[in-house]
Model the fold of this input.
Amino acid sequence: MTASTAPEVLVIGSGAGGAAAAWVLASRGVKVLVLEAGPRFIPRYDYPQTQADWESRGFPDTPQSPRYTFAPLQQLDRQFSHLLSRSSLHGALDAGGRRRAGDYQHVRGVGGSTLHYSGEAHRLHPQAMRMHSRFGVAADWPLDYAELEPYYQKVERLVGVAGPQQQGARWRSVAFPQPAHALSYCSQRVTAASSLNWQPNSLAILSQAHDGRPACNYCAACNSGCPRGDKGSADVTFMRAAENSGNCRVEPRSSALKLVAGDNDRIDHVLVADPTGDVREVRAKAVIVACGALETPRLLLNSQLGNESGQVGRNFMETLYWQVLGLHADKLGSHRGLPVDAICWDFNAPDAIPGVPGGMTLSIATPQSRMAGPVSYATRLVGGWGRAHKQAMRERFGHAVGISSVGECLPNEGSFIDLDDAQTDTHGLPLPRIHSHLDATALQRLEFMRARCHQVLAEAGIETPLEETGSYDQFNSTHVFGTCRMGEDAQQSVVDRWGRSHRWRNLYIADASVFPSSGGGEAPSLTIQALAVRTAEQLLRA
Amino acid sequence: MRRRTLLQCLTLLPLGLSARAFAANVLDGAQGRDVQSSLFAAYLDTLIPADQTPAASALGVDRRLLAQARRSLRARRLLLGGLKWLEKEARRQGGEGFLALDEPARIKVVSAAEGSPARSLQRRFFEYTRDAAMQDYYSDPRSWQSLAVHPPQPLGYPAYHEVPR
Done:
């Protein structure tokens, strides 16, 4: 297939969902064109892990211009001052009385945000898919766990997910394809001291060589991109398999600007800007949009289609998180291992937190907290200066313990995505604007999450966190959901149970914007991929 | 010689030269660079002195931070204001300037900057330079002795589950 040849299916976005859909289609002989707004990174050259300044460089995705804006965020309330982010070195986050606009940590590049993710591969808690039936909040998923389970299996097998024998409520019909990773020494110490139940996290990181990819060597720097390919980011798994089929072509640095409607409730073509800025029309029998929960509603709103229900951009759910850091008395070597290697599901069920619907996860996440090298220690945990500081660095490096919690985020009227007419991109199109509001239930959940993080640290012998950060005073999201909700009712949702637009017969969505609820702290990439595989298989049947 | 040059530069401000012009003059002029280097290096070596590992200036931290400051007017102004304050504080404490002080006296001056009100120039100068210097210094493997750390790849940490050595 050449660039000028019309593809049968056009996939917009090469992250978790787009890549998985492209793999299914291309491996069944369908000609697929994948558009990716960002570049194709070359892991061995672009990622910094072999360099002395790897900590400062981080992942090499540096936006040249803003990609989104914020509407004014909510005023902070004195009664929740205990939820302010603070550090022993830098004091409280100075939010100026109003919640601060942080980052939507979204990567543009072939592989999308899986390029910098921690590799967590979680199935949703089955009960987390029935939030409306059980609690009258969010919306029910139009499918259940049993229907999704075979697709989870397919994805786990291709990626090579490593995990434990059992994961409680999230039952399995087959074992994980790879054995779980051993816990780091740090996590062994923390879990041994904890009164909670911990187990190895399920991870899209190879514990054994698989499909031409090596086993992990535990450098702890997954969030800067994996230069070896043992982390199952979408570029080295789904996208690679799709391209190897000979039926899939990827165009990096190419942006979909507008979906253009044709006759018979179908998308006729898509306006695409190539790397030089030239705009062309691309026609395909079907279009799959997989740009994430900000860019997907933005594309639909800019195209002025798909919003017959008025739900495009509504029901926005962000990452509700809390994270604490402390220093252990013993040398743990906690800069080694995996970003998030141990997880506690005790409070993950949607009724597990007293008095508030929606669950949460706890994890030991020291490297994910960026405590993988001396720069972070010197600038965040070890205070002072002079000879005393240098000695303290020698005494405390490797002692950090980071505990992280992610909780359910429920939709509310104040959280949505719309277009910012005042700010446009290089093509003159309005940027997506984030409206975010944390309601009372979110704050109640945050308080519980904070208390459990403190409990884990205290049981490990660390009485006082040296740094704690959370969603209360700063929007900061890795996972966002819900802005093109799936459902049976065309008046209340954007796509049907297969991810197809209720109105536009050849338009599909395959990213977390279709999630009716966020889950109780599970990382969403595995569910995005399972849904995308299911959507693509349905498209094949159609 | 260098101290005299600095004093010449510092006296430009009261004569009505704008802060912008002052910053450009001092940082971009050859004389200014000499003064900058010496004073800034001495200050950074107070923050990060030599012991088992080299001092900040031995790893070139001062030169890189100055080069960064030359690309940002805001950083230049903060840096120059901070250096001027150090010099003034050194004299207030009875010395002939920061460079002329011994190490305990320099520590006293830097401690005064650290202990100043949160939004004061000298406190902002201290916090900015401390973080920037630590970031630069600990990005150099020569600072890692006894830390048991290395760039993440290609070695990784295969013994991550064992008691650290």
In short: Residues 9-46+71-541 of chain A form a domain with the FAD/NAD(P)-binding domain fold (CATH 3.50.50.60).
